[in-house]
Automatic annotation (TrEMBL):
Signal peptide: none annotated. It holds the Pfam family GATase_5. It comes from Hymenobacter aranciens. Transmembrane segments: none annotated. This is Phosphoribosylformylglycinamidine synthase subunit PurQ. SMART domains: GATase_5 (SM01211). Keywords: ATP-binding, Cytoplasm, Glutamine amidotransferase, Hydrolase, Ligase, Nucleotide-binding, Purine biosynthesis. InterPro entries: Class_I_gatase-like (IPR029062), PRibForGlyAmidine_synth_PurQ (IPR010075). The keyword Lipid metabolism does not apply.
Length: 285
């Protein structure tokens, strides 16, 4: 069974929704306090996918996600001076997956794991206060970038999801970074308007993000982060307009966010089968 590690503690508050998403997608979720990982009691390497949920880690002090990102980068988890970031780099090199939602996305961006164009985990973009100057709590519509290579978004064209954040505005500091992100489709999700076009117009784009960008991946597609909350749209009944949609013949019981979790679980199941298959063939000569 695919094993999903979900971190919590220090003000993270979306871990149960995350766990529900993996359970519905057929994986086994384990919620672990960050200290258990930082103190070496739990190893991320025993899992297939590492998850950073939303919330208000460290009270958003110094900027959302900044303190947690610094703990991952600088806090030594062993006498040998290893950090959790060292472990995460190995985890990714092993072909495993990392997902950050909202505050989790902020952590991955502040750490430099997203977009990680240069491969040296140095911050290249940032997330800052919404252009509205307010916390935004609303539903938005996203379009998946067809250039994106991430298995998380396979087969998805468009999805509706809620946002709830104060610091969701992606800022891309220069043209070179912007071009590199666009050229490889790392801006995997954009906010769209009622016509289906990418937009910087409020409230369709709830925070004024550059590139109308709601989510990023790294070049491998293994690290994925987004501001909206797919784990809050697991059932059709999570949608504020479910009754009207139902009357209009929209019959699925599943929420649109669930597909992302089903995608990654299926992908991991496929790769596990493949590696089992290979080792069986090798042992049979
Ligand atoms: N829901 C969240 O994860 C919110 C993230 C962060 N605390 C913000 O307000 O931007």
């Amino acid at each position: 069974m695919v094993q999903a590690l979900i971190l919590t503690g220090f003000g993270i508050n979306c871990e149960e929704e995350f766990a529900a998403a993996y359970r519905l997608a057929g994986a086994e979720p384990t919620i672990v306090h960050l200290n258990q990982v930082l103190h070496g009691q739990v190893s991320i390497h025993d899992f297939d996918i590492l998850n950073f949920p939303g919330g208000f880690s460290f009270g958003d002090d110094l900027g959302s996600g900044v303190v947690l990102a610094n703990k991952l980068r600088y806090r030594q988890t062993s006498a040998a001076g290893r950090t959790l970031l060292d472990d995460i780099k190995r985890f990714i090199a092993d072909g495993k997956f990392v997902l950050g939602i909202c505050n989790g996305f902020q952590v991955l961006v502040k750490l430099g794991l997203l977009p990680n164009l240069g491969g040296d985990v140095t911050p290249e973009v940032t997330l800052t206060h919404n252009a509205s100057g307010r916390y935004e709590d609303r539903w938005v519509t996203l379009r998946v970038n067809p250039l994106s290579n991430t298995p998380f978004l396979k087969g998805i064209d468009k999805l509706e999801v809620p946002v709830r954040h104060g610091e969701g505005r992606l800022v891309v500091p220069n043209d070179l970074v912007r071009q590199a992100i666009e050229a490889s489709g790392l801006n995997c999700l954009s906010y769209i308007d009622a016509n289906g076009d990418g937009t910087s117009t409020y409230p369709f784009n709830p925070n004024g993000a550059d590139l109308n960008c709601a989510g990023l991946t790294d070049p491998t597609g293994q690290v994925f982060g987004l501001m909206p909350h797919p784990e809050a749209f697991l059932s059709a009944y999570n949608h504020p307009d479910w009754a009207r949609r139902r009357r209009a013949g929209w019959l699925s019981e599943e929420g649109e966010g669930l597909q992302i979790f089903q995608n990654i679980v299926e992908h991991l199941q496929g790769s596990t089968l493949l590696s089992n298959e290979i080792s069986r063939r090798v042992s049979q000569g």
